[in-house]
Amino acid sequence: MAKVPTKVIAGVTVPDTPLIDKAYKFARENLEDYAFNHVVRSWLFGSFIGDQIPGLQGRDVEVHAIAALLHDMGWSKNPKLISKDKRFEVDGANVAREFLIREGNSAEWDTHRLQLAWDAIALHGTFSIAQHKEIEVQSCMMGVVSDFTGPEKSPGGVLTREVWDQVVKEYSRTGFKDGVIEEMCGLCRTKPETTYENFVSSFGTEYVNGYSAKGHRLLDVTLAIQE
Looking at the predicted structure, is the pLDDT value of residue 199 above 90? Predict the structure, then answer.
């Protein structure tokens, strides 16, 4: 893609476009502090990792940035952004696509770029699939994962402790763990049908009284097959 302007945030060089700024502000307006700090850290970590790994250096950095910044819009407390019947990743992907159609230049945001952003968000928690997708999807996922695992377990081990500390100093991790647990449990309470086939169900099983995926798993469907 064409070279885009850059700026430095918390020691990490990132693309600097008006649309990325709008996505940043949109996330800030619609996410709680712990979630907003997480999506920004995910963007910064993913950007640093992507710039260190040769196979990811040719990515569309604007797609990556906007997908990372909006990847957890499915955690928003704004009821206008959240569905009653879709996985939180799909809610986030749909919000991002609508944002890009509304705020982006239609000549620049064709079907392919919109789909890249949608896929990056929808698959950010499905690591075993995302790692085989386009490099924008991979980079987004790697940044998200690294915010959970820490720099030493980052892809290729390229995320340094120095970079990690700089980013965390500016975008605090305070409340992150408890916020994630409560968000996942909330999904299990309010729309459990969206959680049975993915990792969210493990939070329901561990923490939510009365929650059970039994009867909804592929195993249960398979066992019920009549021969």
Answer: yes
pLDDT (tens digit, 9 = 90+) per residue, 56-76? 999 999 999 999 999 999 999
Domains in the chain with CATH codes? 6-173 (1.10.3210), 175-227 (no CATH)
Whether residue 163 contacts residue 157, with contact meaning beta carbons closer than 8 Å, is answered with no
- Residue 70 main-chain phi, psi, to 5 deg: -105, 10
DSSP state of 86: S
CA distance 134 to 117: 10
Q: Convert 175-185 to b/e letters by CB count within 10 Å (16 or more is b).
A: ebeebbeebbb
Decide: 56 and 135 in contact? Cβ < 8 Å: yes
For residue 1, pLDDT over 90 is answered with no
Instruction: Say if residue 217's pLDDT is above 90.
Output: no
In 3-state terms, the chain is what percent helix, strand and coil (to 5)? 65, 5, 35
Q: What confidence score (pLDDT) does residue 226 get? A: 84
Token pair 């965390």: residue: 168
Q: Which helix (H) or strand (E) holds 212?
A: none
